[in-house]
Amino acid sequence: MAEAHQAVAFQFTVTPDGIDLQLCHEALRQVYLSGLHSWKKRFIRFKNGVMTGVYPGSPSGLLVVLVGYIVFESALQLISHLIAVFPCSKYVTEEGQRIVGGVLIGTGLWIAVTFVMRNVLKYLLSWHSWMFNRHGSLSLKTKLWLMLVKVFSGPKPMLYSFQNSIPRLPVPPIKDTVRRYLESVHPLMDDEQYKRMEGLAKDFEKNLGPKLQWYLKLKSWWASNYVSDWWEEYIYLRGRGPIMVNSNYYAMDFLYVIPTTRQAARAGNSIHAIMMYRRKLDRAQIKPLMVLNTIPMCSSQYERMFNTSRVPGVETDVLQHMNESKHIAVYHKGRFFKVWLFYDGRLLLPREIEQQIERILADKSEPHPGEELLAALTAGDRDPWAKARSQFFSQGKNKQSLDSVEKAAFFVTLDDTEQRYDPENSVQSLDSYGKSLLHGKCYDRWFDKSFNLIVFKNGTMGLNAEHSWADAPIVGHLWEHVLSSDPVRLGYTEDGHCKGNPHPNLPGPQRLQWDIPEEGQAVINSSLKVAKALADDVDMHIIPFNDFGKGLIKKCKTSPDGFIQIALQLAHFRDKGKFCLTYEASMTRLFREGRTETVRSCTTQTCDFVRAMMNDKATLKLLKVAAEKHQDLYRLAMTGKGIDRHLFCLYLVSKYLGEDSAFLKEVADDGYGVSYIILGEDLINFHISSKHSSPETDSHRFGSNIRQAMLDMLDLFQFDNKASNK
């Protein structure tokens, strides 16, 4: 084992002749290589910090300015005048004075140019009217603006290069937020309800609202983002209920590709690919996401992807992030293992990681008392976990083992079940697969880790991610890298192993040791009971919708997202006979440290279309009007003009001030949980969840309604085309 290997780097014995030192050169070599690796990472971080700090300028630009100025300054007498005022000028030669003066003035000029470029770029990026251009066409004004953004952006940006140039999220005017709020709730209320809400809104806009708004504006001038820190704390970290199911989310493997059926091999390639992604992340070599290949999105959420764990507290949790972690934590059949991913000063190769995983799979040792169900603490309520962590895991071997889990790069579960999409039994196989990734057995995932890699017995895999540190698109970027690297770049041998050879001297995984008393085991069992009740209540249904996809929708000159959102409204009305407040997440990463905003998809225009469909009077025009309205709301949300985050922050300020607002208390939430992923041109995967305990919902019934709604809406385009052809 690596720790034991380094622990015996030297031994000594006391003899009559004195102390006899016995050095283990191989272990000392590993210590040296480990230190060298750490110093390399520190240097890379320092270099990246410098490069990011001066962007859109660059050190090479500084060199050009200095050389140019020193060469051509002879025509100017400015340097000699400046040098003359320094007391040390008489001790420096004229040539030295010329060089020093050139360096000072050139550096000042370079700093000034960089400062101007950065602030002009920030000003340019504050203009968002380009979002409202018709899809597929750009106005002349937008084209000129894009050209200016390119001119004032530096060359070859790294992941965090644009962070100082991305504008801050603006606070919308109270009047605009109230107007948009009333517009969003109008289709959900009768005349009497709406009149009452309108009165509350107008009173808030005139009286309490401006006072609360003043505090928000003050925060927006002081903080990088007036929403994100409160959103993270109050929506995620202060929640006392289980994060499993309620907050954590999952990502699936390929449905139609099976790279290998060897569990250890799939884990080997995937873990290596994830660590290669981490290396790129540490070196800021991942390109920032750019809209239209020009407009940068904020990259701050990537910072806590690895080496991060959510640590429970009595009142609020905290995110613990380590700058460096050289191991992963692995769970298999009730046992926890610590696996070092570096040896000989380098990252282990895929076949070497597979070798480590094979050793774990071959280990026949039994779990320690309480160890098998331990992770259920992360699946239940937060307060019992916080108290148990303080009482039973704050010292001795329990603390050491818990540290190994919480400070790991990420968590890996070697699941002893088999999951896979089966075309012969598509509904049951996908539902089982989705539920396994979402909650598993409630004790075989460490839900507090930033993400869990789950590798099933038959080689299928997936992710389960904790939500507080970042949103799904960030994890999706990592997952795309893993899935593209696994079968294509890394590949497998003909017999399904990772390519390469096992390492002859590689120290094996370290089995973590636990000593959990009976009182601690009772808390674990109590958390497991809570988690199982929650998991058993999940009604999960996954639909691989392949009748058509975004390719055909775009041919109909309609936004795929708008089309699907309207289909969900139609399906919901058919399912429950009513409309409800609908939440669709939109990212706000055009702003610094931006996360999400809500798009309220149930609009008056959408309701008009749904009612027309129910009465067989729907027209293509009604559909396109509803879709365009949805797209406008999405654009407003992306450009900082949403409703819900502003209201959320106003509500928090009112609580800080001890003010009570009837308007801010009016909150509603109902319906199914639906996520969808548009894959290629012809496939859309719908993930539907609800609760078995609800008498009003049925995920499979709703799934059937979604499929029929999609097909019925497509018929509108086909009928329109037939009429045009006639």
Automatic annotation (TrEMBL):
Residues 1-47 form the Carnitine O-palmitoyltransferase N-terminal domain. The gene is LOC107688557. Keywords: Acyltransferase, Fatty acid metabolism, Lipid metabolism, Membrane, Mitochondrion, Transferase, Transmembrane, Transmembrane helix, Transport. Residues 169-664, 666-708 form the Choline/carnitine acyltransferase domain. The keyword Acetylation does not apply. GO terms for biological process: carnitine metabolic process; fatty acid beta-oxidation. The active site is at 467 (proton acceptor). One of its GO terms (cellular component) is mitochondrial outer membrane. InterPro entries: Carn_acyl_trans, CAT-like_dom_sf, Cho/carn_acyl_trans, Cho/carn_acyl_trans_2, CPT_N. Its main location: mitochondrion. It comes from the Eukaryota. This is carnitine O-palmitoyltransferase. Pathway: Lipid metabolism; fatty acid beta-oxidation. PROSITE patterns: ACYLTRANSF_C_1 (PS00439), ACYLTRANSF_C_2 (PS00440). GO terms for molecular function: carnitine O-palmitoyltransferase activity.
